[in-house]
Amino acid sequence: MKRISLILFSAFLCMAMCGVAFSKTVIKLGVVTKPGSAQNVCAEKFKELVESRSKGEINVKIFHSASLGTETDILQQIQMNTVQMGIITLGPFDVFVPSVRVVGFPFMFKNFEQVDKILDGPLGNELLKDLESAGFKGLAFSENGFRHLTNNVRPVHTVEDVKGLKIRVMESELHKELWRVLGANPTPMGWPIYTELQQGTIDAQENPLWVIWTYKLFEVQKYLTLTGHVYSAHIDVANLSWFNSLPEKSQKLIRDCMMDAAHYERQWNRTNEAGFLAKLKKAGMIVDEHPDIASFKAKAVKLKDLPLFKDPRTKELLEKFLAATK
Ligand code: EAX
To answer: Residue 89 is part of a domain; what is its CATH number?
Structure first.
């Protein structure tokens, strides 16, 4: 009897020790969109890189398709560390950390080269640092891309045509104020929004071309205007305390893998943009490729003087971004 107990005890001890020796880091990572979407392209690349480079020591479990709720919900779960990481559109961050909204300032970035130079440089880094005040570790920027307007009421060519459109915007102060200033009637809502467009609760929305295609918004939106009004980044983040509690080697690995995944995904988006536009035209959308951007800019620039950019840190960062993107 004694012998059996001893054997059992040894077996238990071995299992416990083996368990410790092989204990894995399991990362829960949240994205709001479905497989095939920009956030997921980045998430899947990150998972592949981190699992292979850590030789299986770090595992990533991706939660997608709004299974964790909206992007605002995911950010709250990251703050609570029930989810460790997320690839989240920049818009909803500005409710948590106001200064990040400077990246979404309308008509600021001229092209992708400028985006890469600034977001991968010291200014991008400064911005990622600001996220720490809300308990996020900013790792990298991936992208949704430049946002364009769709609606169901009329062709939009100048800003005057936007007047009174019931437009869904992200749960973001910047986006809400922008569309108010442009003359529309904005309603903040989480993602997805197909049903609301279908039922006519809203007339309009704005998103990059891959979104309009992947979420079949062409079925419920007739007009597309290539406004490119906001460069929509994602911020790839982790819970700050959780991240800092990891061994330095793992921190570096996670940061490097996320940076590589973000670059991979930005390329994916840029390579596929023209194809998405062609498909949307083929699907029957009426596209204005050369709207009167000057009329939009003239109104959008007024955002700068609104309370949105009054707080000193946000104002300071906006000045720096505007100077760098001139
Ligand atoms: O990434 O909420 C939004 O408009 C986002 O751009 C959307 O989730 C697609």
So the answer is: 3.40.190.170
Distance 86 CA to ligand 1 centre (A): 14
Query: What local confidence, expressed as pLDDT, does residue 14 receive?
Result: 46
Query: What's the total number of domains in the chain?
Result: 1
List pLDDT tens digits, range 20-45. 444 699 999 999 999 999 999 999 99
Nearest CA to ligand 1 atom 8: 191
Contact 179, 91 (CB under 8 A): no
Closest CA to 150 of 247, 226, 64, 230: 226
Question: Where do runs of H (alpha helix) occur along the chain?
Answer: 2-21, 38-53, 71-79, 112-119, 122-130, 173-181, 194-199, 209-214, 240-245, 248-282, 293-300, 312-324
Q: Which domain holds residue 92?
A: 24-324
Q: Is the whole model's pTM more than 0.90, yes or no?
A: yes
**Could you give the CA distance from residue 87 to residue 79 in angstroms, rounded to a whole number?**
14
- Which of 148, 174, 191 for a ligand 1 pocket mutation test, highest count of atoms within 8 Å of Cβ? 191
Say which DSSP state 235 is in: E
Q: Packing angle between helix 38-53 and helix 248-282, nearest 10 degrees?
A: 150
